[in-house]
Amino acid sequence: MKVKTHELRTKSKDELLKQLEDLKKELAQLRVAKETAGAASKLCKIKMVRRGVARVLTVLNQKEKQALRKLYKNKKWKPLDLRKKTTRAARRNLNIHERRIKLKKTVKKRALYPKRKYAVKA
Fold this sequence. Notes:
There is one protein chain. The chain has helices at residues 5-10, 13-35, 40-71, 88-92, 96-100, 104-112. The chain is mainly alpha-helical. The radius of gyration is 30 Å and the shape is rod-shaped.
């Protein structure tokens, strides 16, 4: 039986773990059958079972990461693997808030020496 990803996404974590355990047991049995010169049909099934295990693990990891993203959505700090994957230079740029901040010295200077306005004869 082939494992369908869209069906796995509807299952709970416990069901997924149980299915993973079943697939691993089946894979172990198929490997034994391979060594004992089993039927050709069983040898072909190993690939399907391995892929099924991979699919179940992928869905489990995706669900876990999705739950973590939901948990850290409005927090100030996020784990490194949940942060945006941009370039190294872009991560080191100042953010919008930091760009808008003015030094006290700059604020005083602008208050004391406002921009000059000229009346230009046209």
